[in-house]
Amino acid sequence: MSDWSPTKYAQYADLRLRPAGELMGAVGSLPEGAIMDLGCGSGGVGHLLTERFPGHTLYGLEKSEAMREAALETGYYADILSGDLASHELAGDFALIFTNAALNWVPDHRSVLPHLMQFLAPGGWFAMQVPSQHDAPSHVLAREVASRLDPEAFPDTDANSNVLPPRSYVSILEPFGEVRVWMTEYMQEIKAPFGHPVRHFTQATYLRPYLDHFGGQGRLDAYLDAYDTELNAAYPIDRQGRAWFPFKRLFVVMQKG
User: Fold this and answer.
1) 6-256: what fold?
2) Virtual CA dihedral for 63, 161, 253, 4, nearest 10 degrees?
């Protein structure tokens, strides 16, 4: 896929940061050590982490060059490493490994999460938030429209989600410490200057492979028009130009024993 766009991702930044704040609030006192913002993106949570946990050096790990550069420009990170979230060998024992809306892009959580635990200091915290939106109309319709326009490229409208059922995270992480798992559904109010507002929210993240594919074919407008049409029925726009967009998030926190 093409690289991430920090500008597009920054749209609706307040909605994207709200779950990060809820996740931070569930983390207790940290032992000595640094903080790793895993999949830090453009560094949107950098200021929140430094305010919530003063005295702890903040690092990031981010594969996208564009996002990494944007995060470094915030000035909150001592360094941002380039690497894959699933396999990167992190140096040192971290007081907190924090990951906000990043591990949903990574498959095989049953292997990835135990791999990360070796880089967490005793008494340290792991905190993860991922969208749990796979079966919502915003995501189902994105897949169905893509399949309708190009069934050979997108034959599977179900498409497996990387995010596991909530109780799975208890069984994966319980051998390492005390685990809490919960779900929150945010009722998001969104507006956009043109097109459907939900499309503007998803095009910075979930839609990326579809935008790349149909853009490469010269059929991007056809895809977006069809997707907007379906969204109008699923998420009606009111007289104020707003769409009310329910969005589910899965939260996991664990303190290492």
Assistant:
1) Rossmann fold (3.40.50)
2) 30
